[in-house]
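Suppose a colleague, Dr. K., hands you the sequence of a protein chain of 119 amino acids and asks what its three-dimensional shape might be. Before reaching for any lab equipment, you can write down a predicted structure in token form. Begin with the sequence itself:
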Amino acid sequence: MGDCKSIQRHLDQGLDPNGRQARDALEHAIRAGRDDALAILLSAGLDPDLRLAYDNTLLLHAALYGRRACVRRLLDAGADPRATNEMGETADLLAEDNEPDVADAIKQMLGQARDRQTG
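The predicted structure, expressed as tokens, is then:
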């Protein structure tokens, strides 16, 4: 279940976008930077704050892999920019594992999302 047509076919056949099979596909899609696949699952009811391994949210996972488009898509869908994982790590901290320009771009998006929440 990797390409968008395949994902849509699985959804049409009853795939739960928040279920275990979808979680495996989500981890792969985010690592691969497939924000188009993420968009399909979000439109099908995917919880933007769904938790993956180590209690990472999708947003934390996207920040860790430096997937700016996925970070943007998740924030636009309402993902919590203040979420932490089981170790207390934030998306800002996980973004630091990337090139400085990628980390800075992600941290800027996260800061803007936090500002919108408090604004």
